[in-house]
Amino acid sequence: MSILVLGINHRSGPLSLLERVSLADTEVPKSVEALVQRDNVREAVVISTCNRTEVYAVTERFHGAYADIRDFFCDQAHVAADDLHEHLYSHHDDQAVRHLFEVASGLDSAVIGESEILGQLRGAWDVAQHNGGSRTTLNLLFRHAIEVGKRVRTDTAIGRGTASVSHAAVEMAVDRLGDLHGRNVAVVGAGAMGEGIAVALHAAGVGEVVVINRSPERGQALAERINGVAFGFERLAETLASADVVLTSTGAGGHIITADNAGLRDRAERPVLVVDIAVPRDVAPDVADLDGVSVLDLDDLTAWAEKGRQQRIAEVAAVERIIEGEVERFSLEAASLQAAPLISSMRRRADEVRAAELDRHAARLDRLDDETRELVEQISRGVVAKLLHEPSVRLRQQAGTPQGERNAAAVADLFDLG
């Protein structure tokens, strides 16, 4: 059995490819179900964020599982395997564990140390559990990963300062314009990213913010938190026409802001900055060609975030030391978990022998009163438990080591456990 991760992220592939492999929230459950139906995948968790789409799997055959998951990406992106190969990365066993811990710690994010990834990992894990993808091994792995992510943010300063993509988007807009005070700002999308953007704008001292969302109720709830106003998508063109800054992050899965939108025409006298952090992008490419319209997307955010990377780079070594120790701890826990079935089989076989001996002497035991018979039962169970205690402890402690493998083989042979 092996843990395998395959993925494409903001470093390995262009934004245009990330858009093609990105999964909407409604697509993730079906993807998990489809993956575990494949011959070589026993467990699966699918993570799809603005920075990455990754599949974590428990497999019996590495090469077969690699092909199954690669084909999943090819089907999602509608590209041939040869075209995908240079952008697809993979890790297995300890390297896969280390990679997930780095993701949870924010080391693999465009904004180093960002905190939004922990909620995204927890959400992906929940979906996998509810759809039959995450069981014993991946449950242990993801529980551990979230613990690691919390620990590095407590024990180091990796998350100090700007530590989310949504906050970075606002800071990038400030960096570009110098100041947002007195500007009309529109936030398109009231999901997790939109909420983060709106809260960051409010914290930055921006006045009224207009929230545009497909669900007016959710948009209104967010607007009330930041003393803004909310409209449905029917007011999008009107809102764009009066906006100086637009930050968009919907899960629409396609372009909702296009060059045909009346609100973006004739802006030469009143320029507008559009920041698009959605994957797939909310803003059509030709919008950037309009007079007076500037468009920034995740590629620009990644480049901008590199400026702030040096502020946290000193913390990376401390985070990596924590991760190294946690990878070792997970390896020991996973090995112990793998020893559990053998220990259970050994104890079951011993109890079968104990029960058979009591049955063999049942006629004589029937002469005993109930209290004495119960005492015999307790004594026999206690003898078995004490005899197997030390072998059980050794099998758990030595699991995953050469000595442990030899002991496990000997126990299986001696107890005829198959």
Automatic annotation (TrEMBL):
Residues 172-302 form the Quinate/shikimate 5-dehydrogenase/glutamyl-tRNA reductase domain. The record marks H99 as: Important for activity. The keyword Transferase does not apply. Residues 319-417 form the Tetrapyrrole biosynthesis glutamyl-tRNA reductase dimerisation domain. It is an enzyme of class 1 (oxidoreductase). One of its GO terms (molecular function) is glutamyl-tRNA reductase activity. Residues 6-156 form the Glutamyl-tRNA reductase N-terminal domain. InterPro entries: 4pyrrol_synth_GluRdtase, 4pyrrol_synth_GluRdtase_dimer, 4pyrrol_synth_GluRdtase_N, GluRdtase_CS, GluRdtase_dimer_dom_sf, GluRdtase_N_sf, NAD(P)-bd_dom_sf, Shikm_DH/Glu-tRNA_Rdtase. Keywords: NADP, Oxidoreductase, Porphyrin biosynthesis. Pathway: Porphyrin-containing compound metabolism; protoporphyrin-IX biosynthesis; 5-aminolevulinate from L-glutamyl-tRNA(Glu): step 1/2. GO terms for biological process: protoporphyrinogen IX biosynthetic process from glutamate. Belongs to the glutamyl-tRNA reductase family. NCBIfam families: hemA (TIGR01035), PRK00045.1-3 (NF000744). During catalysis, the active site Cys acts as a nucleophile attacking the alpha-carbonyl group of tRNA-bound glutamate with the formation of a thioester intermediate between enzyme and glutamate, and the concomitant release of tRNA(Glu). The thioester intermediate is finally reduced by direct hydride transfer from NADPH, to form the product GSA. PANTHER family: GLUTAMYL-TRNA REDUCTASE. Catalyzes the NADPH-dependent reduction of glutamyl-tRNA(Glu) to glutamate 1-semialdehyde (GSA). This is Glutamyl-tRNA reductase. It comes from Ilumatobacter fluminis. The gene is hemA.
